[in-house]
Amino acid sequence: MAAFEFAKKISNKFVRGNYICGIVDPPDLKQCLLDHSIETCCSFSVRDSGSRSEETKVFYKIKGEEIDHGVPFVHGDFIRLDCRKGPLYYKLKSSTDEEVVRFRAQTTLKCDCPATILIHELKIFPQEKITEPMGVRRKKSARASSSAKIMASKNSDGSYNLPWESIFFVELPLHDAHENHSLSPDVAGFSQRVNYDVKMEFKEMEAMGVKDMDILRALIAKATKNICSKGVQPPPNSRAFDPPDKDIYNILQAAKKARESGNDEDKLTETLNTYCLRDPENKYIYRPANRATGVKFLFMSQEKWQKDLLEIYGDVILIDSTFNTTDKRNQYLFLVVVRTRLDYQVVAQFLVENQDSATISEALDILKTRNPFLRPKFVVAVYAEAIHNAAKECFDDPQILLTS
User: Fold this and answer.
1) How far is CA 329 from CA 56, 266, 270, 314, 352, in A?
2) Does pLDDT of 97 surpass 50?
3) Which percentage of the chain shows pLDDT scores above 90?
4) Helices 245-261, 213-227: crossing angle, 10 deg rounding
5) 292 touches 328 (CB < 8 A)
6) Measured between alpha carbons, how far is 30 from 44 in angstroms, rounded to an integer?
7) Distance of CA 312 to CAs 280, 345, 379, Å?
8) CB hemisphere CA count around 176 (13 angstroms)
9) Residue 209: phi, psi to the nearest 5?
10) I need a surface site. Which of 123, 170, 318, 333 has the fewest CB within 10 A?
């Protein structure tokens, strides 16, 4: 037990069969599990979790051992992790003779290994510790009194009025707890997943534009020393801390894709700013919706050539609204069209959240502000009172013509 570095983070430790048990402070739990994974060359995945906060019993022992010699505690949350090569708890997909399936030499990584990690949260009450030496009956009576006091201080939300601290009781398997698979560093290292902290380091490097594989490996080797505890060194062929080039490439591509997708509103704003810098005479307006303040979504675009056509042929404009195309997103597209000598051309377009008169009128006001010369004599539109009212309100009482 003393040969393992992870065991040094466990207090009040004892051995039960092939497991090391004991108390780990919350700040040391993550590092303890990481060191255990590195030193035993095995990885685990969450199998079950839950809470025992509903229990109404106070304990003084766990697994037959006292916690800090007489400190009472109650159970909190717990989590159970199975060895990645543990029991097969899911059903394998069966194939028929008609299906064309790829040949798999090994259908699953599971090989029924019984090793598990158990983590119990214990809420201890140090002020209720029984320190005085006493006989069995007095001790039993003192514990009953202390237990009743603790349960009486429990609130409906599961908290306690008495001062308490949170610690973790862990059961960590040794090598002998594993069965049916090898734990040799030369073999087990290849089947491990890339460490989460290492993945985060790769993603940060991708964001900074680092792509050279040699530089990436040098930086990861330096970061590994900070991730692992002093005296804990991953094996040379550990996939968790020294992944192959293919894994690194996949991590970088996934990070790039996630970074480039991002928030749709932010990406749209960035794209429109790029367009405006490229050609300042093109006009774009984007206003995202804000439910808290009641601001509604609005998007409008008009390029320079559209503005020029509107200035020439703007005596008669057609306002057309698309139906049953963008309705599912609660956004409605309106097109402002003029008739040229050759055909009809769209000279402005706006996307709004509602089809009422106030919303359309607001968009037309913005269009009129961007085009001070716009004073149409005729407005052609479908039979929709919202469009008719908005046109009459924004322009100098134009004549409304209905389309068939």
Assistant:
1) 51, 18, 22, 31, 11
2) no
3) 17
4) 90
5) no
6) 13
7) 21, 12, 16
8) 7
9) 90, 15
10) 333
Tokens standing for residue 104:
């798999």
Is the pLDDT reported for residue 293 higher than 60? yes
The distance from CA 281 to its chain's CA centroid, rounded to whole angstroms, is 40
Instruction: Extract the tokens encoding 385.
Output: 């009172």
Check residue 66 and give its pLDDT: 65
- 325 has a pLDDT exceeding 70: no
Rounded mean pLDDT, 42-46: 84
DSSP annotation of 192 reads P
Token reading at 344: 């009809």
Q: Worst-scoring range by mean pLDDT, 193-197, 234-238, 388-392?
A: 234-238
Backbone angles phi, psi at 127, to 5 degrees: -70, -20
The yes-or-no verdict on residue 49 having pLDDT over 70 is yes
Q: Where are the alpha helices (DSSP H) in 101-212?
A: 136-152, 185-188, 196-207
Q: Using N-to-C axis directions, what is the helix angle for 213-227 and 196-207, rounded to 10°?
A: 140
Pairing assessment for the beta strands 344-352 and 298-302 based on DSSP bridges = antiparallel
Whether 221 and 236 have beta carbons less than 8 Å apart is answered as: no
